[in-house]
Design a protein that fits this description.
Strand content: 15-25%
Strand order of the largest sheet: 2-7-6-4
Structural class: alpha/beta
Oligomer: single chain
Radius of gyration: 22 Å
Number of helices: 7
Length: 254
């Protein structure tokens, strides 16, 4: 696994004109590109290795509860099942939550039935996600949920080991390679000379296509896959199905 520091030090030698020179001091603008490449890769898709299971702790008499500190968004597959079988329904629609809330008196308590997901905008350091509940809880409850984690560089202060450039980013080795490839493309385009970045962009495109294919074997997006039984659309390109290795201009995140 890489940290921002180790990946930057590894790549600075590739950008330097003098191939015999040591890595040397890595400038901040160089690290900024490396960080940006990680954020792009992390949020480009719902990658299966980002899945986590959280436990929502609801206190007695509480009308709010805090989601996991690394929460980015709910797992869409879990939400589908939860809509059918869960006793607590989640939404990001404030209108829908207010519709349910209006059915209860302000003094009524019970098992919460509806939760609207909002950002805690009063906390200008952590920007954590939490839920408003209705009705207000009559006792303590816990509720398990499945979610996708935030990029470690954007985590709250209690994850300072990840926020620091020296902290290793917890993701599969295969995706560390994707981070390295994307960072290489961006760095060579910005600080390099000539068109050496084109080969790296092709390598990243091949990597990304393989990553999407393997990811889709275990996790699906909200949009159902089209079944092309007669092969009528076989010749059409789709961003959801990969990229032509020659289609440099449309590769993700470049």
């Amino acid at each position: 696994m890489f940290s921002v520091d180790t990946l930057s030090a590894d790549l600075v030698g590739e950008i330097n004109v003098d191939r015999n020179a040591s890595g040397g001091t890595v400038p901040e603008r160089f690290k900024s590109v490396v960080r940006g490449a990680l954020r792009t890769l992390w949020t480009k898709r719902d990658w299966v290795w980002q899945l986590r299971v959280g436990s929502l702790a609801i206190s007695a008499a509480a009308s709010t509860a805090t989601l996991a500190t690394d929460f980015r968004k709910m797992d869409s597959r879990w939400l589908k099942d939860n809509e059918k079988y869960g006793w607590l329904q989640f939404t990001n629609s404030l209108y829908g939550w207010q519709e349910v809330q209006s059915q209860y008196s302000s003094t009524v308590t019970g098992q919460p039935e509806y939760a609207v997901i909002t950002r805690n905008m009063t906390d200008h350091v952590n920007f954590l996600w939490y839920v408003h509940l209705t009705p207000t809880a009559d006792q303590a409850y816990t509720y398990s949920y499945s979610y996708l984690a935030r990029c470690p560089l954007d985590l709250a202060v209690d994850h300072a080991d990840y926020k620091a450039d020296s902290g290793e980013i917890p993701m599969e080795e295969f995706f560390s390679e994707g981070w390295r490839l994307l960072a290489t493309v961006r760095l060579k385009k910005r600080f390099g000379t000539g068109e050496a970045w084109l080969l790296d962009q092709k390598l990243f495109g091949d990597w990304y296509e393989q990553a999407v294919e393997e990811n889709n074997e275990t996790i699906s997006d909200n949009i159902e896959q089209i079944v092309d039984g007669y092969g009528d659309m076989a010749a059409l390109e789709s961003p959801g199905c990969g990229y032509s290795t020659l289609d440099f201009a449309n590769l993700p995140g470049i």
